[in-house]
Amino acid sequence: MKYHLRLRNLNYKNNDTCTLLLTLFVVLLYTIQTNIIREGKMQKSLKISKSAIIMEGVIIGDNVTIEDNVYIDYGVIVRDNVHIKKGTTIGARCIIGEYLFDFFSNHINSPHPLVIGENCIIRSETIIYGDTEIGDYFQSGHRVTIREKTQIGKHVKIGTLSDIQGDCIIGNYVSMHSNVHIGQKSVIKDYAWIFPYVVLTNDPTPPSTKMLGVTVEEFAVVSTGSILLPGVNIGRDSLVGAGAIVTKDVLEGKVYVGNPAREICDTIKIKDKESGKEIYPWRNSFERGMPWLGIGYEKWQKENNRE
Q: What angle do CA 226, 228, 232 make, to 5 degrees?
C-alpha cells in the first residue's frame, strides 16, 4: 500500500525530542499501514493496488478490492464487500458500502456487494449503500445519498445533495442536478436530464406499502421544481416545464407545463429566442459530455448503428 503523509515543520531542541518524535512517527505510520487490523483479527481478504493512494484516517473493511490509481481522501469509511475500480477518486468523509437495514438487528454486516466503476469521481460526504453497482465515469456532487439495489450506468452525473432512494435503475449519460429526489422503483433511461429540486414520487395512497415508480424515457428533460406523481411515464424527447405537477403520462416529443401539467405543444416548436433555431430534439444542438462530442449526433448515430 502506498501512503502519503504530510508532516508539519518541527524544531528539534535535543536528541531526546528527536527520538520521541521519530518514535511517534513510526507508530503513526504503522497504525495507518495496519488499517487492515480490526477487532483484533487480521483481515486476509484485501486486494489493494500498490499504486492506490489512501490518506490518513481511512477505515477499510473486509473483502475489499481497490484497483490501480484509486485515490481515497481523508476520513473515508470503506465497508465490507466493496470493489473500487481503477482511476476512481473518493472524496473526504464518504461512506462507501454503507450498512443495509439488516445490520441493525444483529450488528453483523451480511454480504451486500458494492461495485464502483473506473474513473469515477465521488465527492466529499457522499454515502453509497451496498447491493449497488455504479458504472464507469460516474460523478457525484457533495453529500449525495445512493441507497441499496441501485443500478447506475456509465457517464452518469448526480448533483450535490441529491437522494436516490434505492431499488432504482439509472441508464447511461443521465444528468441530474442538485437537490433531486428519486423515489424507489424509479427508472431513468439513457440521456435523460433532471434539473434541480425535481421529485419523483412512488406512493399513490400515502402512507402505504404500495410503490409505483416513475419512468423517464430516453432524451426526456424534466425542468426545475417539477413533481412527478407515482407511476407516470415521461415520454422520449419530451419536456416537462419548470414547476409542473405531472399527474399522468407525458407523451413522446411533447411539452407539458402547469399544475396539473397539460400538453401545450410539440418540443420541436420551441425555438432559441436569439437565433430562432430549433432547440429540440436537444441532442442535435447540444454535445458537451456526450459520446457524439465533436462529430455531431447524426454522424455518431450512423457510426454506432443507433436508432
A: 145
Smallest CA-to-CA distance from 187 within 173, 200, 206 is with 200
Q: CB under 8 Å, gap of 24 or more: what pairs does 76-83 form?
A: 79/109, 79/130, 80/109, 80/111, 81/109, 81/111, 81/112, 81/113, 81/114, 81/130, 82/113, 82/114, 82/115, 82/116, 82/130, 83/113, 83/114, 83/115, 83/116
Q: Which helix (H) or strand (E) holds 65?
A: strand 65-66
Q: Domains of the chain (ranges plus CATH)?
A: 47-268 (2.160.10.10)
One digit per residue, the tens of pLDDT, for the chain of length 307 reads 444 444 444 444 556 666 666 766 655 655 555 454 444 344 558 999 999 999 999 999 999 999 999 999 999 999 999 999 999 999 999 999 999 999 999 898 889 999 999 999 999 999 999 999 999 999 999 999 999 999 999 999 999 999 999 999 999 999 999 999 999 999 999 999 999 999 999 999 999 999 999 999 999 999 999 999 999 999 999 999 999 999 999 999 999 999 999 999 999 999 998 898 999 999 999 999 999 999 999 999 998 876 5
Which three three-digit cell numbers place residue 52?
Answer: 492506490
Give, as one character, the DSSP assignment of residue 249. P
Q: What's the pTM?
A: 0.84
End-to-end CA separation in angstroms for the chain: 47
